[in-house]
Amino acid sequence: MAKNETYNRLIHTTRWLKLRRDTLTAHPFCQRCLEEGTTTIATEVHHVVPVETETTEARMARLMYDPTNLRALCHACHLKTHMEMGRCGKEATKRRNAAQVAAMVNKFFG
Fold first, then answer.
1. pLDDT tens sequence across 24-33
2. Is 73 helix (H, G, I), strand (E, B) or coil?
């Protein structure tokens, strides 16, 4: 799960849970698997443009609740997608941590 507090708060709202349910109802099969010629049940909803890329809660909410920013995926495809985006693993964590430190230094020390 994401470590961004705002993201965590948004992903646990009734609004998100309803949108997630609606997305999985509209797309019961993994959209990536279908593109690759297989059929797998979708169990997760992926944000195409990561919500955490935004800096304000209002902009994060816009991405979080935008149905055109969502894909229904199976667990395996969700993991593959995040790996391809460089959002999983030790290296991705190091990059995220370095970016957060740089943002804090910039914020407080210019």
1. 999 999 999 9
2. strand
